[in-house]
Records
---
Amino acid sequence: MSKSNVEMWANDTISGVPRKDVAWPALIADAKTMFDNATTFFDEVDGVTFKYAEYANNVLLPTHDEVFLGKITPAEFATKMQELTKQYWETKGTGAPAATEEAAVEEGGEAAAAPTLDKTATLEFWSMWNENEPQAAVLKKYAEGFEKETGIKVNITFNGRENQTLVRTALGAGTAVDLMDQDGAPLAGGLMTEGQGYALDEMLSQEAWGETGTAFKDVFIPGMLEQFQLEGKTYLVPHTLITYAIWHDKRIMEEAGITAPPATWDEFLAALEKIKATGVAPIAQDAGVNFYNVIWYFYLVERMKGPGFLLAAAEDKTGEKWNDPAFAKAAEMERELWDKGYVVEGAEGFTWPQGQQTMADGLSAMELCGSWLPNELSKAVDPEFQWGGWPFPAVADGAGKNTDIPVVMLDYMVLKDSKYPQEAFAFIRYAMSKSNVEMWANDTISGVPRKDVEWPALIADAKTMFDNATTFFDEVDGVTFKYAEYANNVLMPTHDEVFLGKITPAEFATKMQELTKQYWETKK
């Protein structure tokens, strides 16, 4: 599956291929277009040949041939299929194909019954939210409602964004923690990879809370539960979906004469110049947050080289991939924002939330940030503020598209050594019921992974980006997920140096080559 070999396979056999960086042959270009535009994937013959090959080959396909070739009528076909299907399953000793619990769910039958819960249990839930945040208020309501319905008490410890670090310390000291939530990528690259998560796969077929016959796993947008699987097992359940956008006040854009989202980087720079001419600083930046700073960088690299390029450089144990000109070029491009005076004055010294507050105060027009920003500023902006979100622009001749979007998830995880894993999962099922997810979406202004719940109007542009996406990729191109230590100790602090003008783009690329090599040498 090396790139060169997959290219050979594609071209010599005229085949579609699963590597995301290999083009399909021109003869089947329309098939690739269909693949890129797909909203749902399903198995051939709707999965019948995969799950029941004998039935497909001996019942469905030959009988279908009879009606397809005009030997029987459609009505006769339906009657015959009813009879043959019944006969087939009678020979198997069952009256239905749902011989296992899993099959029942996949075939649309009854979801697995939830186990009896220990009503004397008390769950210890450590959360990433601060107690004064709206998410904490919703979680408290969940805990109250869950206790009322089950008798199980949930103690919530609100630790803020350092929750994972505090949970790790607590586990090391022997403190019981049953359940936690955290940003998905660092959690997957951290405690989950360290073996502290509880595999939930056998529980996912349990009935969704309050939805008779519907399996819990079936209420999610396809692919969301699989995002951070480890060796084929599911440890995380997403409760929030985030993507990044260039958030702005539409009134300022209108005043500057900007009527459409800039499609390319050059158009984006031209828009910034128009905004600057109105007397408003185009860009807010919380430069004291290295993760906010690196958003510009990973987007620019992705737009030039496509998903996976930055990750490949992080994984290169020689560091040589950092010598690719794209890495210095991306740093040059983001530095241009500072050099041309597009970033609000004083941003170099800002600590969060000073940067975003300049948007609320009307001193800046936009901030590249996650879809949590409209919620964080909802009480600070004036009542007439009109939220809009642009996708990050494409780069001329780049491999990435402005419909490639990073997806960030915030997830629940049951801890491996919990005394009450079933009860902890029951709380997750309760929290992810439709009415509770609707509460979460509306009270916290968040995107959500349930496929039957609408996103709030304030972040409608984020949902549009999500719906129009042709490719999803992980934040920081997956580096924080796969190599959290490298991201936190090598990439982001070194990027801060170039982003804030302390070293040149060329020096940055050289330093990253050296530090990457050194990092992997310590791992031998």
---
Amino acid sequence: MLLRSTRPSLRPLLTIGLASLLALMPCASLSASPDSSPIAEQAMTAGMDAMQRGQFDRAAWHWQTASAAYAQAGDTIHQLDALLQLADAQQALGQSRNALATLHVAQPLAERLGDPTRRAAVAGALGKTLWLTGAFDNARRYLNSSVSIARQANAPRTAAVSLNHLGNLAAQQGDSHAAHAAYRDSLKLAQQAKDRTLIATVQINAARLAMQEQDRRTAETWLAEAARLVQILPNSHEKAFHLLAIGQLRRELPDASAPQRTQAFQDFVAAATI
């Protein structure tokens, strides 16, 4: 999730952004299991397609349908994945209370499955959502738990996502030292996971933090690195969101040069064409 100004944003860019990250888990597996429902599988695919287009309300509807169908089929693993995706869509819609309710349904399922990666993902999603509602202490507790579980499970992407949220939380509370440390560890794990979108998200957040500290040179470096990654990502709502975030930050650089302002305009144009 990308951090914007001093208020938590809902999706990675643009933190996650102008508007996170970013789903908290990799896209749910669509491989059919013996108990899978064709309706559920179709709904999962439709939900991911809608999310990529920024149609969050449609994505939420499809994932709610998928979750119910998987539950009826007794397919707990895929039900949990659908609930995580549903919570992400609800957060994108600004429905944090609904997202919390969804995650409270997911939490006992993850505990019952005993899958540490999914337990870490649910804890991270709860932490992110609690942060968005202003429950900072509880948010930090869940995010730290997510990182710990994910590290033990050798799940670098999940740990990187939660560390990025911890960085956002620390930055919002003015704890630059903790924010830098969280972003540094998040970036290392995101690179280990080879997740280009997440790498760019963390770099943009690090650039924003550098700007808050009046460190223009570091901010420019992070933005340039993020821009190179974002340019090679496939077109999606998330890519457009990242381009907008980069353009916005370039435009807000102290004493932005003419080339920086021109590049910011080009970022906005590129986002608009997606």
---
Amino acid sequence: MRYLPACSGLLLLLATGAVSADYDRGAAAYAAGDYETAYRLLEPMAEAGHPEAQLRVGAMHEWGQGVAPSFNKAAQWYQRAAAQGHPEAQFTMGFMYGSGTGVTQDEVHAWAWFDLAARQGDQKAREFRDATGARLGAGKVAEAQRLSARLRAD
């Protein structure tokens, strides 16, 4: 029985290594411009909750790389990565809400997503958050702050 925790840890370590290797192969295919292979490797990982894979799959949908372009699908993948705290995905969600790309335009949501990325040190997100806040005014910024707090809590 005392070997069970050690075996469980070893299995987890091996699985993590396999996931990392799969991601690396998918990222290499993406970098080489082999988008069909990249999508085939990354999409199952994205479905399983891997935030970097979700970000890449979102980008592939946004730019039509290996799949038909779809801003709606891109936003769905970015949202999943952003909800896990991925700062680049959070920034991208802010941009999508700010421009109405793939989602209904909503500057309160844009401010909240920019805020989450800014809190992780993303300077560009801080600039976009502040510019969005200047357009919103104090009442809407307060609403956006509450939304940001809810998103952080989730």
---
Amino acid sequence: MFDSLIDNLNKDKWEEIDAASKNQDKFLEYHVMRQHRQVDDTTIAFMVAVDEGDPKSVELKDCQKKKDPLKEIGVVELMLNAEETEIIGIDLNGDIVIRK
């Protein structure tokens, strides 16, 4: 059995939502590159790219200590902040979390 996304994130900073509450227009499907860099105990940096798009570096902040909710994930729907530098929403096959 696998952990849900929220089990790998700080519940004070992230919350689970259902599909009906998800703002579909803000989420895009991204390919997650294999190499994940641990920035600090609770932040991970990834390279992600949309189909036919250029890769960009983004951070996932407020993870549980030394946990990587996107480990071994190749494709996932993400919502990024306005600067496109930080992940603020994740939808992994209907398991949806957003930053509070």
